[in-house]
Amino acid sequence: MNIKRLVFNPFRENTYLVWDDTKEAIVVDAGNMSEAENDHLRNVVEELGLKVVMAVNTHGHFDHTQGVKFVVEEYGAKFACSAEDKFLMASDSSATMYGLKCNPVPEIDVDLSDSKSISFGNTTLRIIKTPGHTPGHVSLYNEEAKVLFTGDTLFKESIGRTDLPGGDYSWIMQSILEQIVPLGDDVAIYPGHEDSSTIGHEVLYNPFITEVLNNEINYRG
Predict the structure, then answer these.
(1) φ/ψ of residue 21, rounded to 5
(2) pLDDT digits (tens, 9 = 90+) for 113-153
(3) For residue 215, with 0-12 CB atoms within 10 Å meaning exposed, 13-18 middle and 19 or more buried, which class applies?
(4) Contact, 138 vs 130, CB < 8 A?
(5) For labeling, which of 27, 76, 134, 151 is most exposed (least CB within 10 Å)?
C-alpha cells in the first residue's frame, strides 16, 4: 500500500492519496478548496497514473470535505462517510465563521456508520468507529501494512478538539484508549493535521494519553 500526503487549505489539512499495485486509489479527507489545489491533486494523480475510485472521509468537518465534490465529479468516484456527520456537511456555519465559502458536499454513497470495511484494488481498510471529535468519526485501518488513518481523533502528541458541535471529550478518549491503542505500538498513524507518528510514540509522549495511563485523570468523567 502506498500513501502520499497533500497539505491543503488554510488549516493545513492532510489529504491522503492511497493506492496499491493495481493503481486503484482512494482520496482520504479531500480538503482541497481552491482551483490551484484541485489542479495540484489532479496533476499528482496523473503523474502517478492512478485511477481514483472513492473519496473516503474520516469525518464531516468542512476542512476535510471541501474537495469531495471535485473528486466525485472529476473521477466519477463514490463518496464514503458516516451518515452521522451529515448535519455537519449540511451547514456552512463553520466555514463562514472563518470568512470562507463552503463548497457543497455530495450525497453519501457508502455509509461508514454501518460498514465494516472498504476495499479498492487489492486493499481493504477496516472501519473503526472513533467518535468524540464528531459523532460519526471513523478511523481507517490496514492490518497488513499496520497503517491507521486517524483523521482528527489522534494527532502526534495531541488529540482533536471536542468543543465543536457534536464533540465529546470522554468519547474521544474512549475511542483512543479502547479502539486505537490496542492495535499495537508499531502501527503508524496518519492524522488529519500535522505529522505522522506511531501508536507506541503516542502512548509514551501524548499528554492526553499518559495522564490517563498514569491514573492522573478519569477520562470517563
Answers:
(1) -70, -10
(2) 999 999 999 999 999 999 999 999 999 999 999 999 999 99
(3) exposed
(4) yes
(5) 76
Give pLDDT tens digits for 75-88: 999 999 999 999 99
Phi, psi of 164 (to 5 degrees): -95, 165
C-alpha cell at 109: 454513497
Cell of 73: 465529479
For the CA atoms of the chain, what is the radius of gyration?
16
Instruction: Read off the C-alpha cell for 42.
Output: 489532479
Mean pLDDT of 100-109: 89
Q: To which residue does cell 476535510 refer?
A: 64
Q: Is 163 exposed, middle or buried (0-12, 13-18, 19+ CB in 10 A)?
A: exposed
At residue 182, φ and ψ (nearest 5 deg) are -65, -10
Q: How far apart are the two ends of the chain, measured CA to CA in Å?
A: 39
Q: Which of 105, 97, 95, 53 is nearest to 75 (CA)?
A: 53
